[in-house]
């Protein structure tokens, strides 16, 4: 903290407020210093010992408070005149030890977990206990200043976002997950209980929604426990951290029988320029994961000045699939496999394109065919949103959730009907795969406008669509007011359609369709 960066104000308390605002989530430590000064006179060394704040930072804070702090015989305290003003302005009484989780909160958390989706092995899901989710929330509350803070959960099968909302109802939390079921469950619970939780869809192999870049004060993640998994999630987290006062919190565990694996994972974090501020052993407990004792540690990582630059340099190539390979063409299947696909698509297919939707996929010569054989489920819809070719093909597993039944096929077809007409070919080109052929619908409607511009901000695209396709001549203001009145969730107007959870895309398109 450098008080020279803060210009003089009419009141010392305003200058102190500016220092705390700059500290962000780390302001809690400075508030603890102020709380000690409000309690009574203390020598500087005792003040440092009690708060674990560095001498230079304590001295700077005292200097910033100026005449509001009095020095008597080598001790410091807030003056009687300033004491109540500081207590109220900085909510110092809230820093007293909070009561631990009550039976009611724990029972509520158990209900959230039990009513949520079952773990998916393909996504490396291992469920943390409800007690663990609440322990995480309490630790965040007692360690950081969450007033006005932005907390991001990269993946949230454990429902840490809901636990934090129980413990700190005013917390602002964003959840990013690839599992549509989790996003729908969190949205449902948050709506029922009035929690301030926002959900977004993303597969981290293809990046994070742009709205999250440089936005988070705290990022929490419990990723797959492999060097590649930790490296990917930590890299995406680094892209989202707001600045040097932000922190990355990672759940990770390894067996003491395999310390080399733990070493590899820690190297991934060090390679990103992270500093291990703390490692809390056996902090998390799980139903399962017995190979690591059904427990993992909490890593508290501080970014350095080089972290974001290293993250942007490291992101491509972490996974086989990624944004860097979206435009790449390569032979990825035998000739007979490609020939069979060509028969369904209606033209020669010489190679399959890798998946990815960080940007729109424009029209090109011939019908592009995308390799979605590794699709865990959500990729197909995102690729249909990103692709604007007149005809496109998608190769998916034969047991893909969007094609395994007539009901599933109808649901997907209905969702994108204003943009694409879909044809499903199961057990083709072989018994393990299926081909979906999408033909562009050229009927100009508001929904078509939204679906073909899925990377634009929803509010802007919807407004343009109303102006272009409304029978009445609408002004920009009239169109904007109509959009605001029709939108199911106002906050979604600031986001991209392709980043919304599937159920909210469906709700939005229904609202946009007369």
TrEMBL record:
Xref: InterPro entries: BpsA_C, DNA_methylase_N6_adenine_CS, rRNA_MeTrfase/Polyamine_Synth, SAM-dependent_MTases_sf
One GO MF term attached to the UniProt entry: nucleic acid binding
Residue ranges annotated for the N(4)-bis(aminopropyl)spermidine synthase C-terminal domain, each copy included: 106-290
Biological process (GO), any one: polyamine biosynthetic process
Alphabetized Pfam families for the sequence: BpsA_C (PF01861)
Superkingdom as given in the UniProt entry: Bacteria
PANTHER family assigned: RRNA N6-ADENOSINE-METHYLTRANSFERASE METTL5 (PTHR23290)
Protein name per its UniProtKB record: N(4)-bis(aminopropyl)spermidine synthase C-terminal domain-containing protein
The organism of origin for this protein: Saccharopolyspora shandongensis
